[in-house]
Each structure stands twice: as structure tokens, then as C-alpha cells.
Design brief:
The chain is of the alpha/beta class. The chain is built from 10 helices and 9 strands. It is elongated, with a radius of gyration of 19 Å. The two termini are 16 Å apart.
Length: 241
Amino acid sequence: MVAVLRPDDNRIVEAARYLQSLGVLPVEDPMLTVCPTGQNPRRADYCIFTSKTGVELAVNQGWYPDGETVCAIGRQTATALRERGYSVDVIPSTFTSSGLVEELSDNVDGQSIEIARSAHGSGVLIKELEEAGASIHETPLYRLERPGTAGKSVSLAVEGELDGILYSSPKSVRHFFDIAAERDSTSVLQRELEQTIIGAIGTPTEQALHAEDIAVDVKPDSVSFKQLSENVVRKIGDELA
């Protein structure tokens, strides 16, 4: 069994379906629910989106590009914009905040930049762009909260029933271990996870797991959930062989 902790929308449905296609039994346990703030990006010289969810919410709120340089972190974010008929001017080759700063740092001195993302974004992007001379405004488009139903995967992990767990964001890591702490089962969980294949998308997610003293077995080169799934399932097969 492989636990998938994606948000409680079509993403977890698609993730479970894909795991089934790989021949494993998915455990659907959403650790995130998207709560829109109702805010919309401000006009600026540059507008940065960091997620597909942010794009969808902004467009639904009536946002459209109007002369600004549109930047997208990650292929899925860029695809979400293009599917709505909007061009993307900048996509960093490294799908991280630091990768975007590397792309923009020589061009943004004296420019205004709008960052449209979740309310939980890292301060790295703001800090480094300000150091490059830009004027920054951030609009939180949504919050990521923990669903009241979350926790099935924690119970199975404590019981040693999971072969793998797929973590796709630092917030899902925090909610997972918050549940364990509330149940006074953190030490047991940490011990059992030593025998479980742990997959993580991105360095921030990996760092969140390390903060909980959990080793990461699989970290794909991209932010693709499919690649994460394939690599974790392959690793499980290798361990069982």
C-alpha cells in the first residue's frame, strides 16, 4: 500500500488512479484542503505564479495579463496559464524560487513585482528579489488547511502497514506529523517509517521531512507527481526483490 496525501480535490483522485495503473493499492488521505482568500493579484511590471492552484483562483477572480511580464515556476503552473490562453514569458530552468531569482535578478532593479501564491510561501523569493533591487508585493490567493478527515495514513504507518508514502509539499509533511503528535505516536511513527519508502517532491518537502528526523528515499529531478510515483513504486519493488 502506498499513501498519497494530495489536496482533497481532483488531484488526489488522479493520483490514486495513477498509482493503481502502476499496480499498487493507493491509500487516499488528503492532508490539505484549499481555502481561497478571494484576493486577486495587483498590477505590476512582473507577475509571478508558483502553482496551478494559484493560476486557477486568480483567473476565476477575473485576473488577466495586461502588459506585465508573466512568470511561472514549474511546468504545471505554465501549462495552467497557457490553457487559459495566456502566454508565459519566464519559466526558470530550475523549478524553484531560487531558480526564478537567477533568471530575473539582472533585469528587475527598480521594477515592481507581484507574487501571487499560497499564504504559506517561503520568504526566500521575496528576500532575494528585493536584494536584486525590485519592489515586491505579495498576494495570498489561498490557504492550505488540514481536512478534519485526515489521519488514516498515519494510523497505517504506525501499524507498519504502508510500503510507501508520497509527500508533495512541506505543509502535507507538517500536517502528517501534527496528527502523529496529537495521538502521542511520533516515536513509534519515526521507527516504523525507517522500513517505509519515503518519497518527496522538491527540496522544501525533503527539508520538512529531515526536520522530523525522517530520511528521504526518493526525490525526483522534477516536480512531477507521476515521476515521484513511478520512482517510489520502483524502489518498493527493488526492496521486495
